[in-house]
Amino acid sequence: MSTPAHEGAANPLSPAIDAITPEVPAFRRLTPKQLRGLLRLGDVVIPGDEDLPSFSGSGAADGIDRMLPYMYESDRSSLLLLLDACARLPRPAIRGIVALAASAARYPEPVAGVLRMANTGIKGVVQSLYWSDIGTGRVHTRIGYDAHIDEAAYERSLREGTP
């Protein structure tokens, strides 16, 4: 069994994440190898272009420690196994895994069902981390997304009953 990367320490990936994340038990954090696997898998799913950063370039992986504690144990274990594999596999093999998971329509049930679940899991983790852009601002800034809550207007609407 590998040693947790952050045992007893604050998240070395992002101080901004630690500020909004309750302490996460060490066994629910990524090891350095699993982090490398997440970055490699993420770059296959989101390679980036001239307008947007790649997954690894976005800093999106910083948020994974916020996600892991809320996953079902079986889902988390499967993800960590995949990330361990992606840390070791050559990039063409990772591309093959992603392509296979996305090709469920070509296969009969129950194989198609397993592939759909794998595709949803892979893309769900990578896309959620990337587009949430928590603590980095690298993606939201590039797409011009500047959502904020106007607390005064919200409080006013509660008092006055208007939207």
How is this fold's topology laid out?
Blueprint lengths: L14 H6 L11 H14 L9 H4 L5 H4 L5 H16 L2 H11 L9 H22 L5 H6 L7 H10 L3
Helix pairs in contact: 2-5, 2-6, 2-7
Helical amount = 55-70%
Mind describing the biggest β-sheet?
A: none
Number of helices: 9
What does the overall shape look like? globular
Order of helices and strands: HHHHHHHHH
Structural classification = mainly alpha
Low-confidence spans: 1-21
Radius of gyration: 18 Å
Number of strands: 0
Mean pLDDT: 84
Strand content: under 5%
| Cα distance spanning the termini | 54 Å
Question: Features of this protein?
Answer:
163 residues, mainly alpha, globular, disordered N terminus
Write a structural description.
By secondary structure, the chain is mainly α. It is built from nine helices and no strands. Helix 2 crosses helix 7.
Characterize this entry briefly:
The protein has 163 residues and is an all-alpha fold. It has helices at 15-20, 32-45, 55-58, 64-67, 73-88, 91-101, 111-132, 138-143, 151-160.
